[in-house]
Structure formats: structure tokens, C-alpha cells
Amino acid sequence: MAFDGIFLHQVVKQLQPAVSERIVKIYQISDTEVLLMLKGHYSFQLMISTHSKYNRIHFTEKKYPTRSTPSNFIMLLRKYLEGGIITSLQQAGLDRYLIIKVNNRNEIGDRITLDLYVELMGKYANIILVQNDRIIDALKHIPPFENTVRTIQPGARFVVTAPQVGKVNPFEIEKLPETENPTSCLTGVSSLLADEILYRLSRQSFKEIMQEISNSDSLYLTNINDEQYFHCIALTHLKKDYQKMPICSGLDYVYFTKEEKERIRQITGDLFKFTRKEINKFTKKIDNLNNSLQEADNCEIYRDYGQLIYSNLSEIHKGQKQVTLLDFDNKEVTIPLNEKLDGKGNAKKFFTKYRKLSVSKKYINEQIAIAQDNLNYFTQILQQLEMSDFNSAEEIKQELINNGYLKASARKERIKKPKEPNYTKINFDDHLILLGKNNIQNDYISFKKANRTDYWFHVKDGSGSHVIINSATPTEKEIRACAMLAAYYSKYRSSSSIPVNYTQVKNLKKIPNSKLGKVAMKEYKTIYIDIDEKTIEQLLGH
């Protein structure tokens, strides 16, 4: 656990400017995230997350989507805390929780003091509002039958988390006890930090290590095989390069993207699950239709069965399950029979089946084309969801509602608001690049926002983003930048030498009766591009 008691100790130092600030607004970001807007001498956004894996507290400069219908707990926090002044923000020793004290006035104008306990203990992470040692409410309730010692329910007496017994504060000792593992004898030390302390003891004293930790206002991040490890000192025992950044900015960097997918699932509903279900449905449907088509292609055999039976009616009687006859080439043919029917009845049955299958070919091919179109559509939607932010995911959900795939859960979802989609704008070499991350954004920038002479980019023979540059004469550098963006936001992201088509917008045309975002081109050129992650980061940074 990187966010241990010692790391929280350093975070709390960074949060001290919040003391004496007023809480002006409280927002709910997701089921586990709360954002406090603070104003006074300065303005701050205080992020509190009680996610089981990503629980934390820090100042943030990121923009977060907020729920239009907050939970009852958020409404209660607004009632008690909005307008209040933070008088102190302290950690309990080196335990993984802190207390935010707030002075405010109640409904009749009397001054009251409230305690907001923020507990950052993995799956037990919680936010608890307390007044006079009584719980007003909590984000997560713990009923008496789950924990008889520490019940978290409105009205219950608040019991502080029990301190760690038999451990000492590492900032108060000169030397690490011999033969002892730091995690077993020191408060607030995670196994990750313990490994680093033991590794450094060969060249630094324990006091020097703790002094370096105490003086640190930075987060040191090490990436190993897509896993991220961080603390407030460099993790040299990992023997990898590391990045150094301010603590709060570093926490934004580490956690913002990780929790974005979680927010998409919580706020927009489980679009991923729905989309994968539709992909499986249409995949199975295509398989079944292909089997039916194969049977229809071989329908002449049923006509031949009928003709053979009519030519040999005297040999067929009710009760027979099959009959072996000579066909017109004097070869033996075994024909399955319905034992409840006589010869004429079986022949009629085969002729009927022949006519149905021969007529159904056209219909089956039409259904295969429709199912394949839907399969391609939902495969594209899944790809867009995997690369989307919250606003893009909301637009994807609205698109599915408009197309009748999803049922609107509220009146506001059925109203088509004429607002501009949340497409991405990038300033590059005195020109503006427009990037669409879903079908709604792609359609808007290609047919409503772009000029006829602007250049349009899209990955060849695949689904992906539409990219527009507001230039009639883009340079080679601009063409390569736009092509790289189109390749990056496509299903070929992990490939090399990705072909990207580009042409002027005037050469584009919507395909009649096709889904949103599909276009046809009169003429185009193709460029082959390799994706460079650093170039993409620089482009998106603009």
C-alpha cells in the first residue's frame, strides 16, 4: 500500500493551506469520490476518494464530471458543511485517517463544530460526519451485526479507529530496532517503504532516512511493467528510473486516469457490459444465419428427395423412418422419413421445405448484412468507450438511446439538447486540429464545424476518430501529426505503419441510411504512420 500513514503524514502538510478556508460547494463525482470547493485567501479543490484501491485525499487541479442528482449523503454534507470554515486538518498520529474540523452555523444561527473523519484504509475507507461524538451520517454504513464494536450508522456513538498497539512513531526514534522488520515495529510504514528503508540502511542512517521523508514535498513515481509504485522518497530498491513531481500533482497524475473508467461505469451505467452483450448477441446471430444460409444453398437435395419419393410411392408406407431408393443416376440414396406420413405426405413436406429455403436465401443474406452492420457498430462503440473520457461516454450513451438500443431512464435523456459535443481542440503550428472520439463528435466536426477546404483524416479500412485540421494547405509536419492522432484513436493503435486516408472535407459525403459517423470519399491520399507516444502526449497537451 503506497498510501500509508507516513505518506498521508506528508500529504496532510500539503493540505494545511485549507485551514481557515470556507467550504463553498460540495460535489459528488462518483459513488466513492467527493469534491470540496474551498475559497478564502486562495481557491482549492479538495478531492476525497474512498475507493477500495485508490482511496486518497489531496488538492486537485483536474476537471471532474459531477452528478446532477447527488446522493442523500452529499445532500446532508451540503446542509451541514457548506458555508463552514475549516479550523483544523490533522492526522491521528500516523494512522491512515484524518479529522477535518469545521465551524458553521445551524438552522437557527447558533455556532456548531463538526468533525469530518476521512478514513483511508483500503476497502474500509470511509467519510464520516460527526457532531458531539455522535454520527450524523457516513458514506458507507456498517450495521451492528457486521461490527459490534464499531457501528457506523446515523445516531450511533462514534468510536475512533483503534491505534496500532506495540508500534513506535519512526519520527521519534534515532535507530531502527535490530532484527525487526519496519512494518512490524513502526507505525505508518507500508511494506513498500519498509523495503526501501532496509535497502538504504547500508549507506544512510535511519535518522537520515526519516529526515529525508519529513522534508519531502514530492512524489517519486516508478513504473514497472505497467504497475506504478510511489512514495515521498525515491524507491531506489526497485532499481528503475523514477519521476519526481509535487505530491498533489503527482496523485492527480497517478489516479485520475485509473478512476476515469470507474466513473464512466458508475455515472453512465455499465455501457461496457451492454456493448459486449450486444457484440456476443450479433456474433451468435451471424453464426446461426450462416448455418441457415448453408442449408438454403443445399436446398436442391430436398427437391430431389420429393421427386424420388413420388417416383416410388408404392415402396413407402406410414411407419417408415427412412427408405433407400435409386436416384436418377442409379445410385442408392437413403431418405429420412416422417413415420406419421405416407409417401405423398413426405414428398409434399420435402417440396415445401425446398420452396421455403430457396425463397429464404435473399432474406437470410439481408439479415446477415444487417447483423454484420450492427456487430461492426458495437465493436466500434466498445473501442470508443475504451478510449473515452466521461463526456464522450455520456454522448455515446445518448447516441445509443437515440438509436433505440438503450431505453431512456429519465426525461432529460430523451430531450435532444442542441449543445456542441465535447470534441477535442488542439492548437498546432498556428492551426486548429479538431478530434472526435465518438460518432456524435465525428459527425459534428466533419459536417458542421469544418470548412470545405479543411483536411480530414481517418484510419484506412477500420473504425476510429475523425481528425480535422483547419488548413487548406497543411504542411508535412501537420499532416503527420493529424495522421498520428487518427491512428492513435483507432483499433490499430498497437500496430506499426498504420495507413491513414486524408482528403479535403468537400470530398466527403454521408452514406444514406447509415449509422452516424460513416462517410464516403470521392478521392483521397494515404499516408503510413507509426505512433510515437511522446508526440501524442505533446499534441494532447496543447
Describe the model.
- By secondary structure, the protein is of the alpha+beta class.
- The protein is 37% helix and 23% strand.
- It has 14 helices and 22 strands.
- The chain has a 6-stranded antiparallel beta sheet, sandwiched between helices.
- A hairpin with a 3-residue loop joins strand 2 and strand 3.
- Helix 6 packs parallel to helix 10 and helix 7 packs antiparallel against helix 9.
- The longest helix is centred in the C-terminal third of the chain and has 44 residues.
- It is elongated, with a radius of gyration of 33 Å.
- The mean pLDDT is 90.
Reported for the largest beta sheet, the result is: 6 strands, antiparallel
Rg estimate, integer Å: 33 Å
> Ranges with pLDDT <50 over ≥5 residues?
none
Overall shape: it is elongated
Helix content: 25-40%
**On the 0-100 scale, what is the average pLDDT?**
90
Outline the secondary-structure elements.
Layout: H1 5-14, E1 22-28, E2 33-39, E3 43-49, E4 56-59, H2 72-81, E5 85-91, E6 97-105, E7 111-119, E8 126-131, E9 134-138, H3 182-185, H4 191-200, H5 206-215, E10 218-224, E11 227-231, E12 243-246, H6 247-268, H7 271-297, H8 300-311, E13 322-326, E14 332-336, H9 343-386, H10 390-402, H11 411-414, E15 424-428, E16 431-435, H12 439-449, E17 455-459, E18 467-469, H13 476-488, E19 498-504, E20 508-510, E21 519-521, E22 525-529, H14 533-541
Antiparallel strand pairs: 1-2, 2-3, 3-4, 5-6, 6-7, 7-8, 8-9, 10-11, 10-12, 13-14, 15-16, 16-18, 17-18, 17-19, 19-22, 20-21
Helix pairs in contact: 6-10, 7-9, 8-9
